Amino acid sequence: MKNHPENFKATGSGKIHAWAVMAPCILFFSVFESVALGQKPVPNLANDPRYVQASRALDEGIPQVSIQKLNECLASKLSAEDKALAVVQLAKAFLSAGRAGDALKTLNALSKSSVEISFLKAQAFTALGKWEDACPIYHELASQKDAPVSYKISEAECLHELGKQHEAIQILESISGDRDAGTAVRLRLAEFYIEDNQVEKCEAMYDAAHPVTSTETKWKKYVGGRLLLARRRYEQALAAFTETLKTREGLSDNLLVGATLGIADARLALSGPETADNVIEDFIWQNPDITGLSILFRRLDQIYAREKAPSESELQKWAEKTPPAKCSTLAVYYLARAYARAQKFDKALATLDIFIAANPSRPLVAEAQMLQGDILSTLKRNPAAIAAYEAATRHATSWELLAEAEMAAATAHFKQREFTLAQGLFESAARHSERLWQRATFNSALSWLNQANYDKFLDDYKELSLRFPESEFRSELLLEEGLLQARSGDSRAETTLQRFLRDFPRHPRAAEARLALSEIVFLSPDQNLGAANRYLKVANETPRTADTRERAEYLAIFLADSAEKRDEEKVIQLCQEFIKNYPSSPLLADVRMKLGQVFFRRPDFPAAETQFELLARDMPASPFAEAALFLAAQSSLQMMNTDHAVELFEQIAKLNGPLKLYARQQEAILKGRLGSEQDAIFLYDSILDAKPDTDLKFAALCGKGDNTFLLGGKDAKFFDKAIMVYNDLANQPEATAYWHNQALYKKGKCLEKLGKQNEALAAFYDVIQPQGDRNGGPEYLWFYRAGFDAAHILESQEQWKPAIAIYQKMAALDGPRSEEAKARLTQLRLEHFIWEE
Predict the structure, then answer these.
(1) What is the mean pLDDT of residues 761-765?
(2) What is the number of helices (H) and of strands (E) in the chain?
(3) How far apart are CA 823 and CA 837, in angstroms?
(4) Which of 482, 548, 551, 566 is nearest to 520 (CA)?
């Protein structure tokens, strides 16, 4: 499955930890309290018993009561100053209650700003994991004169979470000697060094840290354990972490979780994942509601991913725990991840639905929706995958996660050839993530390219070249431009690919470019087989990948097939060698199709039928499979094997693919030829009920009418039914002149059979009228048939002048039978002495 941005950071030893939470948690309440106590309420509100009770409840750690009391205050009439003070206190209560989103909404409602309000907003953003929003606020606060060191520490933590490790280190380095920063900053800086693989600097900072409190002593012991992990001294690291946990004095929840993770990492290195997961599983059972559970579960999930046959039992037990604990919610999400890894996709999707429905506002919801999207994409359920990714963009708690979701949604749109939507999302992802900028810009350029918007493509290409002149994406874009131009028949393809070969002559995909050039000249209107063969020869002499070698042999087949003096035996041999050498090739269906066509062309219908049926049987997922069955049926018809042809057409119909209705049409045609008109009509009705495309609809209506007409030879009532069908066809607004005229002509033939000569004459006359805006170009076949038949009726009635008028209409049209009409026109005039007045 896709890897998403984790809360974990890689340590120097390659292990994973997440202690971005440690320093803020240790410093949070001291800063919070100092800001809160510095604000003196105005007398009016200070004397309000509800406000007093709310403040006391907050101090006592019962924020729920504080929220209730403050809302009662705000419901009454307050002065502007009192209202602002109550709102700020309410935001603090929301933060204390873990309702950071509500705190943020409350603060955003304030019209004024202050240091305290800015700080509270930053704390809310931090609690929501929105480090991109919190970071600039902390930076602004830290830039003020005499600002507390804690602001810089918080800024460093945000940068650390954003993956800007070097910037975070610089901030802590700038204050590590500050007396106010103390040991906590030095120990945190030591951790940053470990994560940045600066082990020597970590050790120096570790030595410079002199703990005063019991918590700092424990923290230093923990950092020492991480140093030992970085130096791969796993047994000593294990001992250090075990010593850290020996007593609970000075052991915060964060240190407790961190040391447990350290033990798990040491066990992982010493004994493997099956032992490491026991460490975390036992800890969660003993501490199901501890702060830091999300970190524990994430690390446990990573350990499970390394196991050959991980058990899902612990996750299932936690998920079903009664009464539910904090671990229960997380267990549901990670159980879905476990199912997904095991490819139990139905279970994974069902579990994710449960998690998302029960936790619509949890930070993990966006990741759950991303996982949903990945599973649905794997199952090729692209529209549903896109919906999941788009939901993740709405719930993302960080710019990085938002960018990941946008990239995923864009990629899914790209697969569906929805290039406009894809480009917008790729561009947005590039704005939201520096880490993903190159890849997103590359994909944005490809999206413009697929829209044939070369100006916008060039803009992205230039920006990529400017910011990253050595980027491999530059050459890839130039090659992709040429390949796409080649695929779309753009005349600039040859120039683009030649420029690519000139600028990047040693590129590993050079042979691919030469193959494309060979295909270009091969497929060009003034086909140059000599040049195509030369490009192919050079491509074959260039270092090739297995893919380009395969592609070259594939192209050789079609070059041989297109030779001026085609050697059919050579084409057959090349096809058979390709089938033998590349039995799993994605191009195999093309080659079998070509081999079948060569046999059909010879004509060797038994061999052709064999190749087409092999293609359909062995490669049922191929886009050629259905067409191959259709051609196999046509081969059978050529051998007069009608029964097998009908059997094959029935197989096609059961595939329910794009040729289903055409197969039904062929069956209907065969039934009609065999004298089973009623069966044919039934098949035509099934085609019409399926709402086919217009051409097939017209053909089906016509076929139904023709078979109904044939039934009229047995029972005259069917001529009236045939007329109804032909009228339906003639009245179709989209019908071309060909179908319109054919329907009216055949209607006229029905009327003739019914002895209604004058009505037949009128139907024929309608055919030879100007067609107005009917599409399809000039139509001659039914025009002339109707005209001559109309004239014959009039001649049989000795209506010479009207007959002459009909012949004049036909003679005036410059068509294939106009001379015949002129000759008959002249003959009638001479025979009956009728001349133009």
Answers:
(1) 91
(2) 45, 2
(3) 19
(4) 482
Tens-digit pLDDT profile for residues 79-91: 888 888 889 989 9
Q: How far is CA 703 from the centre of its chain?
A: 43
Say if CB 392 and CB 412 are below 8 A apart: no
- CB–CB of 338/301 below 8 Å? yes
Strand partners, 17: 9
Q: Among the listed ranges 57-71, 492-506, 789-803, which one has the minimum average pLDDT value? A: 492-506
Look at the block and give the residue holding tokens 């059919």.
Answer: 568
Other Cβ atoms closer than 10 A to 507: 17
Report the Cα–Cα distance between both ends of the chain, in Å, rounded.
88
Q: State the burial class of residue 313 (Cβ atoms within 10 Å of its Cβ: 0-12, 13-18, 19+).
A: exposed
What is the SS3 assignment for 170?
Answer: helix
Which tokens is 631 given? 């051609």
In sequence order, what are the beta bridge partners of 10? Answer: 16
Residue pointed to by tokens 């018809």: 637
Biggest alpha carbon–alpha carbon distance for the chain: 132
CA distances (Å), origin 455, targets 448, 481, 496, 567, 775: 8, 12, 15, 45, 37
State the number of CA atoms in the 13 A half-sphere of 756 facing the CB.
Answer: 15
DSSP state of 130: -
Q: Are 610 and 641 in contact (CB under 8 A)?
A: no
> How many residues appear in the chain?
837
Q: What DSSP string describes 7-57?
A: S-EE-TTS-EE--TTHHHHHHHHHHHHHHHHT-PPPHHHHT-HHHHHHHHH
The answer to whether the beta carbons of residues 782 and 815 sit under 8 Å apart is: no
Sign, CA dihedral 111-117-121-124, equals negative
Cα 328 from Cα 335, distance rounded (Å): 10
pLDDT at 378 over 90: yes
706 neighbors 746 (Cβ within 8 angstroms): yes
**Which amino acid is residue 349, in one-letter code?**
L
3-state secondary structure (DSSP) of residue 231 = coil
Closest CA to 402 of 777, 788, 130: 130
DSSP 471-526: -HHHHHHHHHHHHHHHHTT-TTHHHHHHHHHHH-TT-TTHHHHHHHHHHHHHHSTT
Q: Region of 640 please: left (phi>0), alpha (psi -120 to 50) or beta.
A: left
> What secondary structure letter does DSSP report for 609?
H
The CATH number that domain 39-128 falls under is 1.25.40.10
State the DSSP H helix or E strand holding residue 162, giving kind and residue range, or none if neither.
none
The secondary structure of 519-579 as a DSSP string is HHHHHSTT--HHHHHHHHHHHHHS---HHHHHHHHHHHHHHHHT-TT--HHHHHHHHHHHH
The residue written with tokens 């990047």 in the block is 504
Q: Which helix (H) or strand (E) holds 168?
A: helix 165-175
For the stretch 798-821, pLDDT in tens is 889 888 989 998 998 888 999 999
- Two tokens, residue 391: 């939901």
Summarize the chain as % helix, strand, coil (round to 5): 75, 0, 25
* Mean pLDDT (the chain, rounded): 84
Pair of tokens at residue 368: 């759950």
Q: pLDDT digits over 446-465, tens only?
A: 899 888 888 898 898 888 88
**Full-model pTM:** 0.57
Question: How many Å apart are CA 677 and CA 669, to the nearest integer?
Answer: 9
Instruction: Answer for the pair 244, 222: CB distance below 8 angstroms, yes or no.
Output: yes
Calpha distance 667→675 (Å, rounded): 12
**Residue 16 backbone dihedrals phi, psi, to 5 degrees:** -120, 130
Where are the chain's structural domains? 39-128
